[in-house]
Amino acid sequence: MRVLVVCHYFPPEIGAPQARLSELAGAWAAAGDEVTVLTGMPNHPTGVVPEAYRGRVRAEEAVDGYRVVRTWLYAAPNTGMVKKTLGHLSFMITSLALGLRRSGRADVVVVSSPTFFSVFSAWALARWRRAPLVVEVRDLWPAIFVELGVLRNRWVIRALEALELAAYRAAAAVVVVTEGFRDDLVGRGVPAEKVHVIPNGADIERFGGHPADAGARTELGAEPEEALVLYIGAHGISHGLEAVAEAAAKLTREPVHFAFVGEGAAKDDLVAKVRDLGLTNATLLPAVPRDEVARLLAAADICLVPLRDVPLFSSFIPSKMFEYLAASKAVIGSVRGEPAAILEAAGAVVVEPEDPCALAGAVRDLAADPARREAMGRRGQEYVAEHYDRQVLAGRYRSILLDVST
Question: What domains sit in the chain, N to C, each tagged with a CATH number?
């Protein structure tokens, strides 16, 4: 089977969509498929294109058994709606203008949203190749921006929702990452038989059993006698990291150290919050390459999965939590709904989102109980291996692609 994957975000960029799509592409290639990924020049989240790609209008490379075709785009940092939208629109255009011929023949075209504008270029590519289109929905877009207050113009919202539903109608299949997303789409008229749930997961071999590294603890700012509490991932407007900083402020007299690793639209707000609170028990570090994540996770005693207190987030499942669990870490989730249910089933601790007092109390309890942390880690890893192994999920996804392409 010849699979063309169209996506705005892809490694060497760091993030959940990049990890999901690269691991899926690698798994499909290992299964014998001819996989091509059509993406833009890497620049997320800083808007800075690495020197190896700078000044190029197109690039091609081989990665893990599949081919990557990159096209020029307007590189913009992950801040400011106008510049980000221009970046998304530019890839929609250049993926067609520069990638149409180089992407090659396809039996099925898979597009991952967001960004939403990539769907239109993928739809055009699928029509040109006479191949079925599979739309993957990782966020309910534009609904999430409405809930967060980023979009307020009702005419713009209605237009975007109409385009969203048109994309789902054009697709041979729609793949979503949570049951809540599936319920939302079916409730808005997308045929139930067309919508499939392939959740995020973790590469068990990558994260499981990684040896602890004392040097990593030092990098993250923790003293040997301190419990290291780690958040690693996007610092976005969805994550409520300022509330985590407030929880850290309540534990300044405890042997606990918080480390935040990553970049994103809300990083500056977090930096300002830590400064204003005068925190001495928190370290803020930039994003690290994907290959470094497992090493840093192995150094942590407790890992955090926070989300903002927004109703729609009850159906959002942060992918980082599967990696935390796969790494045998004690996990605290500040979430509700579907992610809370998964974490509780995996033996993690769950508190209300954006509740610094509850989060501080949960951290204090786990920091004082190493045996409990170890037991939680074992249970969590077993749960992920049974239900959220990325290789198994990739096989299920591949079955959907085979069904629509034959």
Answer: 2-201+389-405 (3.40.50.2000), 204-387 (3.40.50.2000)
Overall size of the chain counted in residues? 406
Cα(99)–Cα(260) distance, integer angstroms? 37
pLDDT digits (tens, 9 = 90+) for 346-376: 999 999 999 999 999 999 999 999 999 999 9
Q: What is the pLDDT of residues 264-303, one digit of tens each?
A: 889 999 999 999 999 999 999 999 988 899 999 999 999 9
CA dist., res. 41 & res. 27, Å (int)? 23
Strands (E), 99-247: 108-113, 133-137, 173-176, 195-197, 227-232
Task: Tell me, yes or no, if the pTM score tops 0.85.
Answer: yes
Listing DSSP states for 176-187 in one string gives ESSHHHHHHHHH
232: CB partners within 8 A, 6+ apart: 259, 260, 261, 262, 288, 293, 296, 297, 303, 320
